[in-house]
Specification:
By secondary structure, this protein is α+β, with helices and mostly antiparallel strands. Helices cover about 40% and strands about 20% of the residues. It has two domains: about 15-170 and about 225-315, 2-Layer Sandwich (BirA Bifunctional Protein, domain 2), CATH 3.30.930.10; about 330-415, Anticodon-binding domain (Rossmann fold, 3-Layer(aba) Sandwich). Bound molecules: adenosine monophosphate. Adenosine monophosphate (AMP) binds next to strand 6, strand 10, strand 11 and helix 11.
């Protein structure tokens, strides 16, 4: 028996209401903030991710689905959404548009991870990117968008964590201080942190192992080593968030798993959640466009995983509007009535009224049973007698009441009731 690949899942019809709900809210928030949709391919040249996400990162080192295509080129299923959007921004000359260019995407992301609750090998992300402006007000806009998005879903008890990880001016000095500090603890580090110390010291702050977390507590804090411009940017952002009454917690150890981030970084977590539970996160990436060969353009983005949102919606018992289905079930008795039923179903659908038809030659009783189990509110019944009279019987399934309606008036009558 085949099964969905490990770490992937089928989204069955009865779960689709969650997906639709979340995606509609995402579209709505983007419309309110003036972000336009972009769809990029699900695979890109491998080097795009190596250059942007960074060589020493978990994503590039361990998690990419990379393959050689039939032409011998190395391709990778996208493990994140920002680099492809930046590639598209450069490729399509979007720096010629009024800046910033505000974009959003919704689509699948692939990471070879150890599957567990809220962590899959294919998941879906909603992300936004605002490219071409360095104003901290744009950071506040993106953070407020994320915050308002979760609020519009009805999610409660979320916290916003905020940090600044500096820029290419101030970060090198800080990293040197961090390296010096950690060199004194090299023996006590976990093997991953041993590697981080050599390749990607900022990520040392992010280790979840209790023994390493003890060491983190004494590490120098980047927020205390920012250059003047980064400090000013961070202060302005905090001021704007205060003005918007968006509560945030400063977390000096918040760093993100991708190398391209600069300055403000943030994550949104459920209060109850563990370390692996970030609902979404983002930050500035002022150097990325230039690094990928574009005209320099500062930028900020945010991404959130739909599966984790849905887990939280379920945990919090949030009720969703149902996806509307057909309104009428059409039952018939006999071949002649069946022909009429087929025509009637088509006529109803053309008039915008959803209809599902019985099939085969089941008894009326079993047809009504099926109508009940499909939970359609009304059934139209056509038998030999009805045909002769040119009518159909309309049965209200909840009340069990029936009326005869001339076949020619079925559409008008049901439209009135809709
Ligand atoms: P990241 O790019 O790692 O910050 O991911 C952004 C968001 O995507 C996270 O906050 C999660 O909500 C979601 N996410 C990331 N990786 C996974 C995964 N493997 N499975 C499910 N959701 C994920």
């Amino acid at each position: 028996m085949y099964q969905a690949p490990r770490g992937t899942q089928d989204i069955l019809p009865h779960d689709q209401a969650y997906w639709r709900f979340v995606e509609e809210k995402a579209e709505k928030i983007c419309q309110l903030y003036g972000y336009k949709r972009i769809d990029t391919p699900v695979f890109e040249q491998t080097s795009l991710f190596r250059r942007s996400v960074g060589e020493g990162t978990d994503i590039v080192e361990k998690q990419m689905y990379t393959f050689e295509d039939q032409g011998g080129d190395s391709m990778t299923l996208r493990p994140e959404g920002t680099a492809p959007v930046c590639r598209a921004y450069i490729e399509h000359g979007m720096h010629n548009l009024p800046q910033p260019v505000r974009l959003y995407y919704i689509g699948p992301i692939f990471r070879y991870e150890r599957p567990q609750a809220g962590r899959y090998r294919q998941h879906r992300q909603f992300g936004v990117e605002a490219i071409g402006d360095a104003d901290p007000a744009l950071d506040a806009e993106v953070i407020s968008m994320a915050w308002e998005f979760y609020a519009s879903l009805g999610l409660k008890g979320l916290t916003l964590q905020l940090n600044s990880i500096g820029c290419k001016v101030c970060r090198p000095d800080y990293l040197e201080k961090l390296r010096q500090y950690y060199s004194g603890h090299a023996q006590a580090l976990c093997p991953d942190c041993g590697r981080r110390l050599r390749q990607n010291p900022l990520r040392l702050l992010d280790c979840k192992k209790p023994s390493c977390q003890e060491i983190v507590k004494g590490a120098p804090r980047i927020a205390e080593h920012l250059c003047q411009q980064c400090a000013r940017h961070f202060d302005a952002l905090k001021g704007y968030l205060d003005g918007l009454e968006i509560p945030y917690e400063l977390n000096p150890y918040l760093v993100r798993g991708l190398d391209y981030y600069t300055r403000a970084v943030f994550e949104i977590q459920p209060r109850e959640g563990g370390a692996q539970s970030a609902l979404g996160g983002g930050g500035r990436y002022d150097g990325l466009i230039e690094q990928l060969g574009g005209t320099p353009a500062p930028a900020i983005g945010f991404a959130t995983g739909l599966e984790r949102i849905i887990l939280n919606l379920r945990q919090q018992g949030i009720e969703l509007p149902p996806i509307p289905g057909p309104e009428v079930y059409i039952a018939y008795l006999g071949e002649k009535a069946k022909k009429e039923a087929i025509k009637l179903a088509a006529k109803l659908r053309r008039a915008g009224i959803g209809a599902t038809m019985a099939l085969g030659d089941k008894s009326l009783k079993s047809q009504l049973k099926q109508a009940n189990s499909l939970a359609l509110p009304q059934t139209l019944i056509i038998g030999e007698n009805e045909l002769k009279k040119g009518v159909a019987v309309l049965r209200n399934m909840a009340l069990g009441e029936q009326v005869e309606i001339p076949l020619s008036q079925v559409v008008t009558r049901l439209k009135k009731e809709a």
